Amino acid sequence: MAIHLFNTLGRKKQAFAPLIPGKVGIYSCGPTVYDFASIGNFRSFLFADVLRRMFEKNGFAVTQVMNITDVGHLVSDADDGEDKLEKGAKREGKSAWDVAAEYTKAFVEDSQKLNIEVPHVSPKATDHIAEQIAFIQDIEKNGFTYVTADGVYFDTSKLEHYGQLSGQSLEEKEGGSRVAIGDKKHATDFALWKFSPAGETRQMEWESPWGKGFPGWHIECSAMSEKYLGLPFDIHTGGIDHIAVHHENEIAQTLAARNCLEANFWMHNEFLQIDGGKMSKSLNNTYTVGDLEEHKIHPLSFRLFILGAHYRTPQNFTWEAVGASHAALGNIRNAVRDLPKPSEVDEESMTSFMERVNDDLDTPGALAMFYGVLNHASMERSVKSATLLAMDAVFGLALEDVVARPLTIPSVVEKLVADRETARSNKDWKRSDELRDEIATLGFIAEDTADGQKLREVW
Ligand code: AMP
Ligand code: ZN
Fold this sequence. Notes:
By secondary structure, the protein is α/β, with parallel strands linked by helices. It has three domains: 4-269, HUPs (Rossmann fold, 3-Layer(aba) Sandwich); 297-401, Four Helix Bundle (Hemerythrin (Met), subunit A); 411-457. It has 15 helices and 14 strands. A four-stranded parallel sheet has the order 4-3-9-10, sandwiched between helices. Strands 5-6-7-8 form a four-stranded antiparallel sheet, covered by helices on one side. α12 (363-374) packs antiparallel against α13. The mean pLDDT is 94. The chain binds adenosine monophosphate and zinc ion. Adenosine monophosphate binds next to α1 and β9.
């Protein structure tokens, strides 16, 4: 079945053709590990995960690389301000290295809770300093650099097609720019290597042919994507904020050093907003996966929430909306738990589902297909469980842990249920309610049905 994806490079939906038949290489811009990743950041990583799962479901062998930015991402995208890692270190009274290790670990744990598949390679910028220096040397050899008092810069005026990703000319970009350009020749020029400030020892700094310092933010992605995927590769992902600066500059670096377009497809997710406004670490109004859990929202419920909007439309986060997704996933889990063991997949439903998924990841459309099967009145129930599981390979709601797996009820809970049965037959409603509360603290909801009490998981 044909796969169509919206390519930011060219701004249209295109039929996807892999560079190597049956294979796809994806590079996803990963987290800057100076703080917890926000649920906004996770919208980006969930989008990349669903993209990967879509290819896997279509039978492709996927290689996904996601970098860990642990040096060089400055507070301002315009190459000035503090390094985010050094800022995090000051905030927490720890070393930049410890901060990076701590938040990398938190990122991996949060990703796991969201059932995000582990990237095949997760390279750290600080582990690839030599590769980045070599890449800068090649850019320099080809005549695209100049050196200022504070670093080695890329001269964007030397590159014929600078601006192709955002569709802006150099003049347009410069005209719209409000940043002070310092010693740079053009506002769009960007740092490849920054010198450590004179008389100051940074926590993270390395020797280089140009002087002691650290790499610019963009070079890690050019160097590490080449190392792990080769050039060109199929797809590069990230949030829309990366289009105009980070990805534009990655493309420029790889063109300058290798005369090669880095990736064929450039895919970008729109932002997750909060209560209708901007969410950003710098505005300090972000939520984390830990915050979701504190609000009794399961991370997988947030995953369902994200699937409910197309990745190319802005999505508004409210506690009410994510609460509704949480209730919906509870109901899905409840319904599929009662299904029998999976038999064969209903191919017609699956085809309609994959048509939605392969059409630029239309997850809202695919969810409608999923609910159609879940609520189907006459479909064979074992076919239903097989089909829902097959669909969930793309959604990643971890239904394989639930489908056709009746709850295991501990004997203490069984005893309380029996006691409650007795209380109810004695019309002792007060005792019955107390027992219901006690059962709930053990993770089960006792529902009173025409056939007596039925237990559900607390979700
Ligand atoms: P960072 O950790 O800042 O390097 O960002 C990691 C990823 O999250 C990047 O791809 C960003 O474009 C993306 N991102 C940042 N904020 C949001 C947001 N509010 N909604 C969706 N994606 C975001
Ligand atoms: Zn990147």
